[in-house]
């Protein structure tokens, strides 16, 4: 309380707008629920947990919705939607990651992008392996129906380390010849030595995998395939890219089979949980969960509780133009917000920018900094700091805790704390304004002390004391006769402060009887300027 210095007459607005970006993710999980719209997610949460919004990925800190239209239609198919997600480009329905419309060139996919960065890659699906969604990540063909060519692209061009899905169109001999270890059921898959095997083709069943609701028999669940693929890929010290598709959510949507749809979505969520468990505590991983489009025009009408299917309506046997949900956790996830386009997710997965905090210090005139400087503490070993006229940029920050401390202290002028983590749910800490409160001029009073005429009482009220201000008393000749010591100002009541200047007992300014005129001024210490004349007054002795 004794740090009180003076009357504050200056509005100093300290404004720091922090924008945070993140280093590129080392490991990327890309989950696609084929045909999984908002209502499919809602229905699955109600069935699994008795309430909507309860699937684990629905707790991801960054969420958005995305448009799905293709280059040729307002209603996309899985090929064009998969291509948009995999490459960042809109193509015509039916096209697998080639520029149609355009120059018909092959469009680089996320799988290829990350493979070029020496990462291991994998494609996992519950449809057959050469179906449109995985094909969009691992093949380039003018038509999704070129199944043999898609398989050839997998085996001889893009060569993902893991290919897990239904066996149609891909054969044991073709994969073996191409250097893959082949497994055909859960037992074989789980017997793999995931620490040493590097190229695996899981060829399960004869076409798509069966519906979860109908039972999988000896074939693996999507979550089991995901766990096996992960165990293989995570041996790579360069990281990995893994696309996992819940492919049969779409099939159940086409057939308006609610039970099957819910079971597929719940198992898809189980597969995401495998990634969540693995990534927990890591700061180098991105998990994206999204869909390619909605299927069936599903609307949930009523929640019937846990383990009961909700009451719903379907109004389509095909795909709809509805926006689809996007959920993101981890490195780069903060880019997911609002309404996005499905082509934006390529950038989300690949963006490579360091964190930074940007901001500035300004007073109310917009010109000065009030002498305030900012100091950043934390892991600043790699941090670049630029500062000019109160503008700051702290770039290349790492995960961890940082504190930005103003050189001046005071109520409402506190250090700012930042935590950079892959699970940063507090988006508010990216933008803030700190207001250095002004003191209204009409709240400054200087008057003869009513009981002691040889004293001047100076009284003012202020909520936040400005340590840069001081009170000075001048005689009528303009000579400084008193600078009020900080420690002599007392707080009398709430925000009201008071100082009594005893002219009689002031050794330096002892005066004889008579009439004296004084000026009381407030002065800004940092600029040296008098900011206000508070009062002229006479002392009669
Ligand atoms: Zn479909």
Describe the structure.
This protein has 541 residues and is an alpha+beta fold. It has two domains: 324 residues, 3-Layer(aba) Sandwich (Alkaline Phosphatase, subunit A), CATH 3.40.720; 100 residues, Fungal immunomodulatory protein Fve (Immunoglobulin-like, Sandwich), CATH 2.60.40.1790. It is 20% helix and 33% strand. The strands form six sheets. Strands 2, 3, 4, 5, 6, 7, 8, 9, 12, 13 and 14 form an eleven-stranded mixed beta sheet that branches. Strands 17-18-15-1-21 form a five-stranded antiparallel beta sheet, with no helix packed on it. It has a four-stranded antiparallel beta sheet with strand order 22-23-27-26, with no helix packed on it. Helix 1 packs across helix 10 and helix 9 runs antiparallel to helix 10. The site of zinc ion has 6 residues, from helix 9.
What would the average pLDDT be, to the nearest integer? 83
Could you give the distance between the termini? 33 Å
- What oligomeric state is this? single chain
Class derived from helix and strand content: alpha+beta
CATH architecture of the largest domain: 3-Layer(aba) Sandwich
**Ligands bound, unique:** zinc ion
Fraction in beta strands: 25-35%
Largest beta-sheet characterization:
11 strands, mixed
């Amino acid at each position: 309380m004794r740090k009180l210095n003076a009357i504050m007459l200056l509005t100093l607005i300290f404004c720091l707008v922090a924008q945070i970006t993140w280093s590129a993710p080392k490991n990327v999980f890309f989950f696609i629920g084929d045909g999984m719209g908002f209502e499919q997610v809602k229905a699955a949460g109600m069935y699994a947990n008795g309430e909507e919004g309860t699937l684990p990925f629905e707790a991801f800190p960054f969420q958005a919705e995305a448009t799905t239209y293709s280059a040729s239609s307002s209603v996309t198919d899985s090929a064009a939607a998969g291509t948009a997600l995999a490459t960042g480009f809109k193509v015509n329905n039916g096209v697998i990651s080639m520029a149609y419309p355009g120059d018909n060139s092959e469009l680089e996919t996320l799988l290829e992008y990350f493979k070029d960065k020496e990462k291991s890659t994998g494609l996992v699906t519950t449809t057959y392996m050469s179906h449109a969604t995985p094909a969009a990540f691992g093949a380039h063909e003018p038509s999704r129906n070129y199944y043999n060519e898609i398989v050839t692209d997998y085996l001889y061009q893009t060569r993902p380390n893991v290919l897990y899905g239904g066996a149609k169109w891909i054969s044991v001999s073709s994969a073996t010849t191409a250097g893959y270890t082949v497994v055909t059921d859960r037992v074989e898959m789980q017997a793999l030595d995931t620490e040493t095997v590097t190229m695996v083709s899981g060829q399960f069943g004869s076409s798509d995998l069966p519906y979860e609701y109908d039972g999988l028999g000896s074939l693996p669940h999507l979550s089991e395939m995901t766990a096996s693929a992960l165990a293989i890929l995570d041996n790579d010290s360069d990281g990995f890219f893994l696309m996992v598709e819940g492919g049969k959510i779409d099939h159940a949507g086409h057939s308006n089979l609610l039970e099957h749809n819910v079971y597929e979505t719940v198992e898809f969520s189980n597969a995401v949980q495998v990634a969540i468990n693995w990534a927990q505590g890591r700061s180098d991983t991105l998990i994206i969960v999204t869909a390619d489009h909605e299927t069936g025009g599903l609307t949930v009408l009523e929640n019937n509780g846990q383990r009961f299917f909700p009451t719903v309506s379907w109004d389509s046997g095909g795909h709809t133009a509805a926006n689809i949900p996007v959920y993101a956790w981890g490195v780069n996830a903060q880019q997911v917000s609002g309404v996005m386009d499905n082509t934006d997710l390529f950038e989300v997965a690949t963006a490579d920018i360091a964190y930074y905090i940007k901001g500035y210090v300004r007073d109310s005139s917009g010109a000065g900094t009030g002498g305030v400087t900012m100091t950043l503490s934390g892991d600043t070993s790699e941090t670049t700091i630029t500062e000019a006229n109160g503008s700051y940029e702290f770039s290349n920050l790492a995960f961890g805790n940082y504190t930005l401390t103003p050189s001046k202290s005071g109520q409402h002028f506190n250090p700012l704390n930042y935590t950079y983590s892959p699970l940063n749910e507090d988006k508010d800490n990216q933008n803030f304004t700190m207001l250095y409160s002004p003191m209204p001029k009409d709240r400054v009073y200087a008057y003869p002390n009513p009981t002691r005429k040889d004293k001047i009482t100076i009284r003012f009220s202020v909520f936040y004391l400005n340590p840069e201000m001081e009170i000075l008393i001048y005689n009528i000749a303009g000579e400084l006769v008193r600078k009020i010591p900080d420690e002599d100002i007392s707080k009398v009541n709430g925000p009201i402060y008071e100082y009594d200047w005893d002219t009689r007992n002031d050794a330096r300014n002892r005066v004889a009887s008579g009439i004296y005129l004084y000026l009381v001024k407030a002065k800004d210490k940092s600029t040296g300027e008098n900011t206000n004349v508070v009062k002229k007054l006479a002392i009669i002795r």
